[in-house]
Amino acid sequence: MTSQLRIIPLGGLGEIGKNMMALEYEDDIVIIDCGVQFPEEGMFGVDLIIPDISYLMDRIDKVRAILITHGHEDHIGALPFILPKLKCPVYAPRLAHGLITAKLKERRAARDSVVNPIDPNVVHQIGEAFEVSWFRVCHSIPDAMGIAIGTPLGTVIHTGDFKIDHTPVDGRIFDLPVLRRWRTDLQASHDGLRRLAAPRVMAPAVLLGAAAWLSEGMALWLILRGLEAGIPIAQAVPIYAAATLVGAVSALPGGLIGTEGSMIALLQQSGISRAAASSGTLLVRLATLWFAVAVGLLALLWLHHFKNMAATSPDSAASSDSETGDTALPSAR
After folding, report:
1. What is the torsional sign of CA 55, 58, 62, 66?
2. Which of 10, 39, 254, 311 to pair with 300, CA 20 to 30 A apart?
3. What CATH class is the domain 5-187?
4. What does residue 21 show for φ and ψ, rounded to 5 degrees?
């Protein structure tokens, strides 16, 4: 079964506060933010509301880290209560790092927690599955970040809370170029796969592929008829080889914009250049075609061999004699 990327909201959707989201891939889980929610007027005796982490506790051996976007309470306020249970490192922008460090000192059970400061545009490998980097955004608190999480199935962009501010007080502007770069890469992949799936592209690919295999089948049929007519196999085999080459050339455009085209797009998402991906898929296509050639030749040799055996067998000779009316006479003594 193909591995899946699971995105599990544990709070913050459809409500204000308690922001927490988990990303799970195979044996790795990372968590984005860990905030509190403040009680409403009717919640007497309740000081804070924290996310339900029962899903994480059932998979605690998979939890690798908590990633923080910024230092507001609805994004970091639950850390003193949850970190003693999860016992995983925290990665946070420097201002949020300072706020978290001071907050954890107030709760004895959380004082030994590991909090790592991060800088934007630096990639961190977390677990086997996730490559994480932060990028600057603007918000009502300084040093706010969005997070780009690379996974084996693609990149997840989590902007965090943001606003577009071209003149922030601290001078740290929204890093729109890096966000534009991610958008361009994702859009290119999406558009490429969408174009590959379009009927006007797939129809010629299917027709060209069918024509290729039809030409090879026709060549095989001609060879068999040639053998029946007594044409030597050495003269018949080149017909099949030539038809296979024609099939390869005719199927190449269809293959590259059809099935192999999808393969090229997927390989490019893995960081392989288009030239290398195209060359690799071309070699695969030609290898499969020449494998068909080899199988066809073996089948022809097999048929030719058994045809010769049938022609030279005693039963065949006797049958031939009976058909011509010849009768064996007893030898004179």
Report:
1. positive
2. 254
3. alpha beta
4. -145, 140
Q: How many CA atoms lie within 13 A of 329 on its CB side?
A: 3
Please name the residue that has the structure tokens 């590959």: 196
Alpha-carbon gap, residue 296 to 267, rounded angstroms: 31
What is the pairing mode between strands 154-158 and 20-25? unpaired
Contact 148, 171 (CB under 8 A): no
Please, which residues have CB within 8 angstroms of residue 16's CB and are 6 or more apart in sequence? 37, 74
The half-sphere exposure of 238 on its side-chain side, counting CA atoms within 13 A, is 4
Every domain of the chain and the residues it spans: 5-187, 198-311
- The dihedral region occupied by 133, where left means phi > 0, alpha psi between -120 and 50, and beta the remainder, is beta
The pTM of the full predicted model, rounded to 2 decimals, is 0.58
| Digit-coded pLDDT (tens) for 113-164 | 999 999 999 999 999 999 999 999 999 999 999 999 999 888 899 999 999 8
pLDDT at position 328: 46
